[in-house]
Amino acid sequence: MPKNYTDEFKRDVVAVAKQGAVTQRQIAKDFGVSKSALSTWMRAAELQERGLVGPSIGAGVAGDVVVLREALKRIRLLEQEAEVMRRAVAYLPQAQLPK
To answer: Would the pTM of this model clear 0.70, i.e. be above it?
Structure first.
């Protein structure tokens, strides 16, 4: 069963990792966490800094990923609709419409 770390602990570990003085592997070893957990926390912190997810690091990330995935799906749909409209606008001047 995975260990539950506090958000404060995760933020502290991420802050140390962002300094870049030591490799992530060594930081993970020093703090007693897995390299994959540290990588996940780093990605979550980066997404948070970009404003793509909420303020939680860790457990809330899964929910944020779902929201992000849905937003990307909606963006793709809107881009497809915009392309259809562009093609329609280009076609209309060529069409012979009844007067």
So the answer is: no
Task: List, for residues 34-92, the tens digit of each pLDDT value.
Answer: 999 999 999 988 888 877 666 555 545 666 777 888 899 999 999 999 999 999 888 88
Read off the tokens for 20: 């870049």
7, 17, 57, 70 from 36: Cα distances, Å: 16, 13, 14, 25
Structure tokens at 69: 């995935």
Q: Is 7-91 assigned to CATH 1.10.10?
A: yes
Based on the number of CB atoms within 10 Å of its own CB, is 32 exposed (0-12), middle (13-18) or buried (19 or more)? exposed
Using only C-alpha atoms, the chain has a radius of gyration, in whole angstroms, of: 23
Cα separation of 27 and 42, whole Å?
12
CB of 14 closer than 8 Å to CB of 41 = yes
